[in-house]
Design brief:
With 176 residues, the protein is of the alpha/beta class. The chain has two domains: 41 residues, no CATH class; 113 residues, 3-Layer(aba) Sandwich (Rossmann fold), CATH 3.40.50.1460. 31% of the residues lie in helices and 28% in strands. It contains four helices and ten strands; from the N terminus they run αβββββαβαββββα. A three-stranded parallel β-sheet has the order 6-5-7, with helices on both faces. Strands 8-9-10 form a three-stranded antiparallel β-sheet. It has a two-stranded parallel ribbon with strand order 1-4.
Length: 176
Amino acid sequence: MAGALAATPRPVRLILPPQAAVLGYRPWELARVDGQPLAARRISFVVEHQPRRPLSKEPIRARLWMLAVFSPPEGAGALNLRKERYELARMVHQIGQVNGKAIELRVLQYGATRQRLEHALLEEPGWDVVHLSGHGLAGALMLEDDAGRPNRIPSAELVDRLVRGLRAGRADRVRA
């Protein structure tokens, strides 16, 4: 099979069932044929995981609600959050103008603690988009504690908080 791949330099589509999903993260381009990696032969791989479920999306209402969380804990290293926040606000404004939609952007920065994040996520009417920016670790995001020091929030806990906020927002929309 490697010889056939090497003879036809074009993208190769790998369709993987759930049981073989881990294979999609292998560096297939580094496989060698006649001592040369496939990447050197201009062969690339496109991985498609099966089953492919269509995403269900709710229509955007007259106003899109967006929460942007910027967490720069003390001593965690410099990030250019001011510039990022400015560019995000500029982009959101531009998208709103082009599409004729109002976009409500709320920014949480300076004191982005677990409690403030949870409170913001549970605010009415729920968020259509949540943008997180800060230092990350494998399986975690760095928020702040009450004193501004780094406070590691594991990915599972962050996802739980986001899901609770999403559910609360959907319940509010159903009532509205």
